[in-house]
Every structure is written in C-alpha cells, then in structure tokens.
C-alpha cells in the first residue's frame, strides 16, 4: 500500500509542477488552484506512505527522482523545452541513483 500512496504522491506532484508552468507565475488562477491542490495532495500521500514504514530516504529519492525525470520528459514532449543529451544523461543518473537506494534499502 505504501508504494501505491507514493505513486499517487508522484502523480500529484507532477501534475502540480506542470500546472505551475501553465499558471504563468500564478497569473492564471485556475492553474494556480491546481498547483496548490496538487502539492497538498502530493505531500499528504507522501506522508501517508512514510507512516506505513517506508524508509524516508527511499521514499524521497523515488518521489523526487521519478518526479524530476517525468517533468523533464513532459517539458520536452508537451511544453517545447529542449531535451539535450546532457539532460538525458542526468535523467538516467537519477534513475540509477533511485534504483541503487532501493537496493541498498532492502538489505
């Protein structure tokens, strides 16, 4: 159940961060509301996952790493942002770090 809550936290955070870009500095109030609700939901779900005895280092690494990688891909695919070889390498390193933390956390 903790992993399901963590996945919900990641989805909420990615939606909120995407809405943050679309809010144009909170000029668009509808997107600003999505930002606030998304981040509140994300932190609530992350907190509930931690309450179920998920290790904080692993949970935060997965939450931030997957969120960062997803936002980079969304930015490139839908928001016209560049996805350079260096950014791709960074995403690969983030994912590798998350995997390593998960493997280390299970022993």
TrEMBL record:
GO terms for cellular component: plasma membrane. It is a multi-pass membrane protein. It is found in: Cell membrane. The keyword Transport applies. Keywords: Cell membrane, Membrane, Transmembrane, Transmembrane helix, Transport. The chain crosses the membrane at residues 26-46, 58-80, 86-104. Pfam families: Multi_Drug_Res. One of its GO terms (molecular function) is transmembrane transporter activity. Signal peptide: none annotated. Its main location: membrane. Belongs to the drug/metabolite transporter (DMT) superfamily. Small multidrug resistance (SMR) (TC 2.A.7.1) family. PANTHER family: MULTIDRUG TRANSPORTER EMRE, SMR FAMILY PROTON-DEPENDENT DRUG EFFLUX TRANSPORTER SUGE. This is Small multidrug resistance pump. It comes from Sphaerisporangium krabiense. The lineage of its organism: Bacteria, Bacillati, Actinomycetota, Actinomycetes, Streptosporangiales.
